[in-house]
Amino acid sequence: MATFLYRLGRASFVHRRLALGIWVLLLVGTSIAAAALSGPTSTSFSIPGTQAQEAIDRLQARFPAADATGAAARIVFAAPDGTTLADPANAAAVAAVLAQVGGGAKVANVSDPFTTPGTISQDGKVAFSQVTYRVTPFDLTEADREALLTAAETGRAAGVTVEMGGDALQPAPEQGASEAIGILIAAVVLFITFGSFIAAGLPLLTALIGIGIGVGLITTATGFVQLSATSSILAVMIGLAVSIDYALFILSRFRGELNADADLDTLEAVGRAVGTAGSAVVFAGLTVVIALTGLAVVGIPILTEMGIAAAVTVAVAVLVAITLLPALLGFAGTRVLGRRGTRRAHGTPEVQDTKWLRWPRFIARRPLVVLIGAVALLLVIALPALDLRLGLPDDSTSGPSTTQRKAYDLLAAGFGPGFNGPLTLVLDATGNPDAVAAAQQVAADIQALPDVLFVAPAMFNAAGDTAILSVVPASGPSAPETVRLVSDIRAAAPAIAAETGIAVGVTGQTAITIDISQKLGDALLPYLLIVVGLAFILLTLVFRSLLVPLTATLGFLLSVAATFGAVVAVFQWGWFAGVFGVEQPSAIVSLLPVFMIGVVFGLAMDYQVFLVTRMREEHVHGADATTSVITGFGHGAPVVTAAAIIMMGVFGGFILGADALVKSIGFAFAIAVLFDAFVVRMTIVPAVLVLLQERAWWLPRWLDRVLPDVDVEGAKLEHRTAGREPEPTAPALPAA
Q1: Where are the domains of the chain?
Q2: How confident is the model over 330-346, as pLDDT tens digits?
Q3: Does residue 77 sit in helix, strand or coil?
């Protein structure tokens, strides 16, 4: 591997104009393809193989009139104190609002609460109107949303409380500000690290080119397959972070090679940098790609889409780092050293900055104390994860001051807490000659169940073989009583079918949340086995050890547990909510845990590879176990620290976004990098390696013979470039 990448880096350096031209053509080509072939992003959400999805599919197939793919808004009215909405002045205000909303060009229908049954509360003080659009939420413009809010002001001016909710008010996911913040942080860290504008600019330039190509490919793909609107945002989030980090590692090694030997030319320095640091980049990238594409195991399309989209940008980032960066270094040459860069005389050993050796020396003196302390810290932070609750975002998760949350609260006060999360029962009456009477019996049976507030009359399709039954629970959508009600209805379905001949399917917010949680729970173990298993094999190839990959995996579990704890504390409990812009603490978005596990595992292995390969490199070149840990840490820690800060900055920028899923993912990734890079990789792993000594690099002889020697640390490459025959790269096995 190291020899192949050594040649590739040199070839890219020598033919730098050709390499740069190819990448520029790819960027232009993918941009043109994206503009010409892109299609609309998908706003649908499906969970195949679940009972809720089966009910939705039956509804879409047999009741197309109820398949609301367009945007929707709910306008909630509340009368002033001492009056009702039926009073002439209030009724006129309601009519004025509805007329103003109905005049919108994209509005398909506006219901009138005075003529629509069940839309006015029993006391006559609260009512709502349902607004449907001919287009999806992402096709609504800011002007369309502003027209809704302006209509609300008309009613408020007349003294009626008017609030609004629904996906029509949800702005389309935006890109730009979050990425700009991340890039700005990266630029500052890179300049501080390298002390050179040229050196700081190269990783940013390669990252922007790689992200441009990755996003171009993803956008082009929307013309052929349905992709979620959030796929490209998350792909940019992950791709930007790894692109800068991968270029940072190779560039740092290139500068190190030049500083170590004044007689070394830039061509040879590029070859060695790509052959050594580039090998770590390739294997780290493979680990991330495996973790991301492995999300397909879960069986939820949106997770698969996000994982594959992000994997594409990571793969492009690896290719850019090992080909485009060497080409750009050919143009920059020794100018990447900056004013602070100095080249040493031939044969003079490279002097490390001793401040980076203080921490590993401290760990080496007290490895057991450090290990216990770090593990205890992560376990304490992980404690809130025991209270993890999963859910889906709705208007209840909006800030208390927003019109969406006010509309939600008004409906709960006027109609009951369960009104904001009704259950939708899909009744399949195929072949039933008396479907109407049978549906009435089903409604009566459901009404008799605990925690049912109201069952609306069944609404049949034109063929008369399928009906919708809306069930309003007495409790809120996420209440345990509502969860039990879903279970009770599903448990009663066989008896209802035997009694009435009608098959009952349950969907709705609560049912979907239950099914997602079950689906994710069932898929989590197979996913972990596949992803962790493949990554374990890769790490065994890289480190030629069994205990080092095992330590890496166990450390990942600790960092994930601590991350879950921090996410629950901030987003569910509301700790430091103001600091992170969390307006309304709520249940954690259901998709976050498994997606976070996949991505964080890949990123964790990045730092494991980048840091520990330098330790193994020192060990392969003759250093004893403790010295190799200290020296390797001194070489790798500065660049790993810079990379972690950059990645935290990139992810942290997305916390400022409005989308709840993107905000929580940005926080989770940023805090996961903090825990994993600084506590696990730079504290726990060195402590374990010092405690294990030579045993850390143990590999059974039979396995040593079977595994291919990928030579990530570049031992063969060093002997090759020195004109000597390679020596064995694996250290002697310790005595049994």
Answers
A1: 2-37+174-391+514-721, 70-169
A2: 998 888 887 655 554 44
A3: strand
